[in-house]
Design a protein that fits this description.
Layout: H1 12-40, H2 55-73, H3 84-94, H4 100-123, H5 128-176, H6 184-193, E1 201-208, E2 224-226, E3 233-237, H7 244-251, E4 256-259, E5 263-264, H8 268-283, E6 292-294, H9 299-304, H10 308-318, H11 328-344, H12 348-355, H13 359-373, H14 380-396
Parallel strand pairs: 4-6
Antiparallel strand pairs: 1-3, 1-4, 1-5, 2-3
Helix pairs in contact: 1-2, 1-4, 3-5, 4-5, 5-6, 10-14, 11-12, 11-13, 11-14, 12-13
């Protein structure tokens, strides 16, 4: 209360009488408040302290005593509220409730207490203006109590979240271990510990952090997230279920990475392996960055690009003839025509449509190809090998292999 307030203008002896009467009635008032809380909230459980008294009763009585002390000394805030109010906040987390019901209980206590204080004020002839100020102080006092409980609630939520993340990481490690010995019981226990229902199939994603302090993707509790790994990992349950792809798309804004194929739960490590391979190719600029890539949409690149040395050797053996066809530009056009013909297995019109050139141009090139490779173009194995190396080289942006 300000020094120039109406409350401070009340004669000191009158305030002392008010405080003495209030202190006398604190024990009875605390009991009345607790009884009203029990009536309004019959399902609440009240825990007793070492003396057998309900902790709530002790907290109510002590907070009333502190409030009376505050109004008699003129201090702005109470000396120290009981730590129990933080404990009450923590208890709401344990019970799985929000702070709404606890704040409702506090408001009920303040209303009942204020009625008693107002009656005492009339009894000792405290002016209305001073009582209005005292009412304001009472609700400021309520704010302090609520702040205590909010602090306890926040601390408990943080601890609970930290413990869930720890258990979640243990579960992810177990799921992604390649060699496990009869993990079913342990897996079920760890999943139950965080309320995660074991799915039939999973897909595993590996992420690239956009920045060191990037906010974790908001994937929800169904998707397991391990942010402690150097490259964060996700385990997505039943990835083909409705809405799952859209959830990931929204959550992955500003993140790059790759998600492996959908596999049975026991084979989660194979999905991880493909996701890691794809992320490695993203880092080498062989696959695009800036979004969550699905390995199933990049099978050709994932299969062909890692076999670079083998395919380069095969390219030198199967495409060496391109080096003698009239320069790099013409060799590229012939290689492009050969790949289009292998992919369509059609005539000149189909190949021309694929390349966007005139059919007569394609006929000329096909004759050249026949002159260069002859009967190899009729051999299924040779055609497969040519198509394989040309597809791999197309992925790397250069159809014609360099000369030896």
């Amino acid at each position: 209360m300000a020094a120039s307030s109406a409350w401070h203008d009340v004669p000191r002896e009158r305030i002392q009488r008010f405080a003495a009467l209030a202190r006398e009635q604190v024990p009875e008032l605390a009991q009345d408040v607790l009884a009203a809380i029990r009536k309004e909230h019959p399902r609440l459980t009240f825990i007793a302290d070492e003396s057998g008294e309900p902790k709530a009763l002790v907290a109510i009585r002590h907070s009333l005593e502190l409030f009376v002390e505050q109004m008699t000394t003129g201090s702005d805030r109470p000396r120290a509220l009981p730590e129990m109010f933080q404990e009450f906040g923590r208890g709401e987390v344990t019970q799985g409730r929000s702070l709404d019901s606890l704040q409702e209980i506090y408001r009920l206590g303040v209303r009942l207490s204020w009625r008693r204080m107002a009656a005492i004020g009339q009894q000792v002839d405290i002016p209305p203006a001073a009582m209005y100020e005292l009412a304001e102080t009472a609700f400021e006092y309520l704010d302090v109590i609520v702040a205590q409980s909010v602090r306890g609630y926040a601390e408990a939520v943080a601890r609970q979240a930290g413990e869930r993340l720890r258990l979640q990481r243990l579960l992810v490690d177990l799921l992604l271990a390649e060699h496990r010995t009869d993990p079913s019981a342990l897996l079920a226990d760890r999943a139950a510990g965080i309320g995660w229902q074991l799915p039939e199939r999973v897909a595993v994603a590996v992420l690239l952090r956009p920045t060191e302090d990037a906010v974790a993707p908001a994937v929800g509790d169904e998707v397991l997230l391990d942010m402690e790994a150097e490259q964060p990992r996700l385990v997505v349950p039943n990835p083909e279920s409705p809405g799952r792809a859209e959830l990931l798309h929204r959550a992955m804004a500003n993140w790059s990475g790759a998600i492996g194929p959908s596999v049975p739960l026991a084979e989660a490590h194979t999905s991880l392996r493909w996701a890691e391979a794809a992320v490695g190719m993203i880092e080498q600029n062989l696959l695009p960055q800036g979004r969550l890539l699905h390995c199933a949409e990049h099978v050709e690149a994932l299969v062909l690009l890692p076999a670079r040395e083998l395919l380069d050797d095969l390219a030198r053996r199967r495409l060496a003839q391109l080096g003698g066809t009239g320069g790099p530009a013409h060799a590229h056009r012939l290689a492009e025509t050969l790949l289009a013909w292998l992919e369509t297995r059609g005539g000149a019109p189909e190949v021309a449509a694929r390349l966007g050139v005139h059919p007569q141009t394609v006929r000329y090139r096909l004759r050249q190809l026949r002159e260069v490779w002859g009967d190899d173009l009729d051999d299924p194995d040779r055609r497969f090998e040519m198509g394989l190396v040309l597809r791999a080289r197309r992925l790397r942006g250069d159809l014609v292999p360099p000369p030896d």
